From TrEMBL:
InterPro entries: Cupredoxin, EfeO_Cupredoxin
Entry keyword Signal: yes
Cleavable signal peptide: 1-20
Domain EfeO-type cupredoxin-like: 26-120
Keyword terms, alphabetized: Signal
Record's protein name: EfeO-type cupredoxin-like domain-containing protein
Amino acid sequence: MTKHGLFWATACLIAALATACGASSNSGESRSGIATASADAATLTIAAMNYGGPVTVPPGAQIAVTNGDPVEHSVTSDTAGTFSVDVESKEKSTFTAPSAPGEYPFHCKYHPSMHGMLIVK
């Protein structure tokens, strides 16, 4: 094998090992949206007019919202004043999860048929 071929073989092996050892952070995925969470952060990806599955986070976690759709959306708690963030088309935003454990249903104030669930525990 040439030095060039050895270099690429080694690079591919390192990439494969990194992926197998947990370099990827997606812990929960749905068909049309992605909801992932770690110990202190979570990501909610809006796609195809859908929030994906429920997002489970610890109290006070920062939640990143990515809007993959060509229109503006919001993540707005069904209980007024709990949380609300607007996310422009193809943009990102963040909000802080409530500090009290519980289930927090939310919706898009621009598209009433869109609903999701934030679980704080």
